[in-house]
Amino acid sequence: MKKPIYPCLWFDGQANEAAVFYCSVFKEAKITAENPMVTTFEVKGQKFMCLNGGPMFKFNEAVSFVVDCETQEEIDYYWNRLTEGGEESQCGWLKDKFGVSWQIVPTVLEQLLSDPDKSQRVVEAFMKMKKFDIETLVNA
Question: Do 53 and 36 contact (CB within 8 A), yes or no?
């Protein structure tokens, strides 16, 4: 069954390049259609559209994609790949080379923040981080 809602990302002539890049970063990803105006791709069954819409709109942090990571190895992989040509930010946030914002987040973070005895220390620890370090968070 098709998923009725999927994001459309607006690019200035880089739609296909972006889709190819994202498919190289994420496992189980594939280009599903391409023409001069639109390239669509899927990551683990989630459809995305990349549109060559022109220069009038730019990405900002108001919308970001969250990547849940089970291990530090996963965090390191996605962080390194998505910051290639992009920029690091704080608290697990980054912008890729196209200006799209991402949050690379350990899945254990939700559990750590739910622990009333630990949550404040966890927040204090991750506020000092760019890329999340699971061991530091767990030991906070």
Answer: no
